[in-house]
Amino acid sequence: MIYYLLFLLILFIYICYRYLTTKPIHHFYGKIAKNDEELRDGLMHHKQKLGNNRGMLFPMEKQINSMWMKNTYIPLDIIFLDDKSRVVGYIEDAKPLSETSLSIDRESSFVLEVDGNTISKQNIKIGHAILFKEVIIE
Prior knowledge:
Layout: H1 2-21, E1 25-32, H2 36-41, E2 54-63, E3 66-67, E4 76-81, E5 87-94, E6 102-103, E7 108-115, H3 118-121, E8 129-134
């Protein structure tokens, strides 16, 4: 009987540990920048919101990366990701048409741009994972 109770206690502790230490995964889809022009232009001249869980992913060199909002007409949240697609930082509601350089103080390997207010709506936090799937949207 004591072994059974001990087993249940260990199982309970393990389940609590796994539940409390597992980071959420947020799913997004959209375009991946594949060349210098797409990396440079990004969402410039875009005038309509992207939509729920839609965005544009920018593969970058692992360094402190920066973005800007030049010729971008919609507010964006900018999410900086490490090489395992975990959030290392973000900027919320970047001001449209601004030419100010936007960065965080940590290195990133990817940058994801999504509609403004997405971070707060989806409760995205540092350490959360982002799963991005490229889809062609016409």
